[in-house]
Amino acid sequence: MTYTAGLVAILAVVWLLLSGYFDKPLLLGLGAASVAFVVFISLRMRIVDDEGLPIQLPAGLVRYLPWLVVEIVKANVDVALRILRPGLPIRPRLIRVRAGQRTDVGRVIYANSITLTPGTVTIDTEGDHITVHALTEEAAEGVLTGEMDRRVARVEGAG
After folding, report:
1. From start to end of the chain, where are the E strands?
2. In total, how many domains does the chain have?
3. Do 18 and 72 belong to one domain?
4. Can you give the pTM of this predicted structure?
5. Which domain holds residue 13?
6. Residues whose CB falls within 8 Å of the CB of residue 81, separated by 6 or more in sequence, listed in order
7. How far is 112 from 101, CA to CA, in rounded Å?
8. 18-58 pLDDT, tens per residue?
9. Are residues 10 and 75 in the same domain?
10. Residue pair 158/100 in contact by the 8 Å Cβ criterion
11. Of 22, 32, 110, 124, most Cβ neighbours within 10 A?
12. pLDDT tens across 101-118, in order?
C-alpha cells in the first residue's frame, strides 16, 4: 500500500510539473484521472511491488551521493595520474566480494557505484556476490574494505 501511495504521489507531482496547470479544475481533474488510470493499470499488471523504489531510499541517497562523488573524484585523479605517468604501477586483478544488501535495488546501486568509480568495473553479479575488475592493488583494497558496501546497506536502511 505504501508503494501504491508513493506511486500516486510521484505521478501526481510529475504531472503537475510537466503540465503547468495549477488553477484549471477541469485539467486538474483529468490529471487526477490519468494518475488513477496509470496506477490501476500498474496494479493490474503487478508492476507495483515491494522491490520498486522504497520510500526510505531517497533519504539515504542524499547522504550517500556526496560521499560517492568524492570517491569518484579521488579515483579519477588516481587513474589520470597513472595514465600521465606511465611509471606508476598497475596490477589488474579480479576480486569477488560479498554484497551485503537485502534487495536487488541495493545490489544494483552497489554494483553501479563500483563501476562508476574509475579503476574498478563490476563484471558479474551472482546472488549476493559481485566480481570486480580492479586496475590497481589500491583500487582492489578499496573495494575489499567494504566501506562502499556498508554505505549502500545504510542507504537501504540496514545499518
Report:
1. 93-98, 120-126, 129-134
2. 2
3. no
4. 0.67
5. 2-44
6. 88
7. 13
8. 888 788 889 888 889 999 999 888 888 877 666 555 555 67
9. no
10. yes
11. 110
12. 888 888 999 999 999 999
